[in-house]
Amino acid sequence: MLQHLPGPDLLVVHEEVREALDAGVGVVALESTILAHGLPHPDNIEIGARIEDAVRAGGSVPATIAVLDGVVHIGLGRAEVERICTDPDIAKLSVRDVGVAAALGFSGATTVASTSALAHLAGIRVFATGGLGGVHRGASETFDVSADLGVIASTPVLVVCAGVKSILDVAGTLETLETLSVPVLGYRTDAFPGFYLSDSGQRVPWRVESAADAARVVLARHRLGTDAAGVVLANPLPADRQVERGLHDRLVAEGLALLEREGVHGKDVTPRLLEYFHDHSGGESLRANVELVLSNARLAGEVAAEVAAQSVGAGAALA
Ligand code: PSU
Ligand code: MN
């Protein structure tokens, strides 16, 4: 599957990732926008390493994806992760930006959308992140709907996330995922998580109890030819680890007012909000963010390992 990849002038697969893919070992894609634009420096460096460790603890090999000096990297070494975490010139690259950045020699971090697309290109089926982008409040006027949704609708990658933040229109996001034929599975829950909150107040259409069940969904969809879209596996923070409701509601209200005041729009919305939360929650938003990302990475590691094991058993290797 790797022979169809572009040459090293455009894309490089880290040796460990290449070996894992060749050997049929589970591989989990990780996005780099969360490191460059979602978590504060210098904590992001250590957190980046811990996310990769969590994937390994789940039984798979991590592949953090980014564009460095015009080359797409599937899997980063320690120095490269550090560069993503430190260099102020790292852009936020959605799918529409990746080819431009590559052609012009720029460096940037990949979002859920671009990480999914590049993971799929490299033959990686499972992806871990913190929160998905979605439909923004007031989208009927601003048209602000994350490209994450459209790309998941056309890319067969399972994304493990803690739902979407309540700064978004959560119900609208779930409606859109339904329209786009993207299944949403709750991991041991009937409630769609709200990132900092274990329960966004919305239900999930399906529930799975194990990583093995989630992997079975991926394989059945593939064998039935109904896997043009990806899968959202929603993994909530435990109720006793979520951000306290009062603090949460205050942050969301203040964050939305701040966007209005500063006239923030486009791709700067999510990073600006995350920065505000991290600066005004006495460490709580960062604590919860780190915990949920680590939990998602661990679960994704388990799911990818199961997908690898079950594809051998079923004699149905995933293309
Ligand atoms: N949601 C979070 N944290 C994040 C992001 C989303 O809770 O860091 C990042 C992800 O990289 C996601 C991107 O793909 O923001 C979505 O940005 P936008 O809304 O501009 O599409
Ligand atoms: Mn947007």
UniProtKB/TrEMBL annotation:
A GO cellular component annotation in the UniProt record: cytoplasm
Top-level division of the source organism's lineage: Bacteria
Catalytic activity annotation: D-ribose 5-phosphate + uracil = psi-UMP + H2O
Gene3D superfamilies: Indigoidine synthase domain (3.40.1790.10)
Binding-site residues for Mn(2+), renumbered to this chain: D144
Quaternary state and interactors: Homotrimer.
Alphabetical UniProt keywords: Glycosidase, Hydrolase, Lyase, Manganese, Metal-binding
Cofactor binding comment, as recorded: Binds 1 Mn(2+) ion per subunit.
Function summary: Catalyzes the reversible cleavage of pseudouridine 5'-phosphate (PsiMP) to ribose 5-phosphate and uracil. Functions biologically in the cleavage direction, as part of a pseudouridine degradation pathway.
Protein name: Pseudouridine-5'-phosphate glycosidase
Enzyme Commission number(s) from the entry: 4.2.1.70
Family membership: Belongs to the pseudouridine-5'-phosphate glycosidase family.
GO biological process terms held by the UniProt record: nucleobase catabolic process
Gene, per the UniProt record: psuG
GO molecular function, one term: pseudouridylate synthase activity
Cofactor: Mn(2+)
